[in-house]
Amino acid sequence: MTDFTPVDLFGGALNAALPSTFADVSDIRQVPDHQEVWLDKDGFTSIIFEILERVEMSDPEALKYHLQDLVEEDAGETRVWTSGEVYFRMLPEGTPAYTLFATSPAGEKQRGRRNEPDFVGVLLTMVRLESQKTDLLMVINVPHVSGSYDEGEVDPASGKHGRLLEQGMDLRGKVLESFQIKDWGLFVQEE
Q1: In angstroms, rounded to a whole number, what is the distance separating the alpha carbons of residues 118 and 13?
Q2: Is 44 in contact with 146 (CB distance < 8 Å)?
Q3: Nearest to 17 by CA among 113, 149, 138, 165
Q4: Cα gap 5→161, rounded to integer Å
Q5: According to the UniProt entry, where is the signal peptide (predicted)?
Q6: Cα-trace Rg, the chain
Q7: What kind of fold does domain 4-183 have according to CATH?
Q8: pLDDT at 77 over 90
């Protein structure tokens, strides 16, 4: 059982419970101001919290748009397995939120590198904050590096996720349960 610890994000404006094995990437390298990136010290999984300007399109189109932006050159090879609405326990009632599970090849930038993943599981969650003109993304990347998982246990087409993706889905569930906005001033306010 993984221990989860409340973590302040964006200077304490946001908060979520993350596994105690996750470390703030900004302690070792520069991270853009609109992102918080946390990496599992004991594996390859990461979670990114990203604040973006709201895209003016339907919610399902916005979710697809953000996924394509994330996977860039591999968008044509990325496969979405499930998607739907989700509920954040600590956000105001009726806050639109959506999630999807996709798999993507390693990506051009990773090919040929040590510990290159066979594929990456992507658990993308999007919160639409209309009054704040913001799309808030939470992206859990679950790289599947040869030797770190049992290939026979992973077959998204038949609903088999394997240990790594199950851990990523547990993390997503804990974020849905614990994520809160403590300072709405972080976002642009509609006038």
Answers
A1: 36
A2: no
A3: 138
A4: 25
A5: none
A6: 16
A7: Protein Transport Mog1p; Chain A (3.40.1000)
A8: no
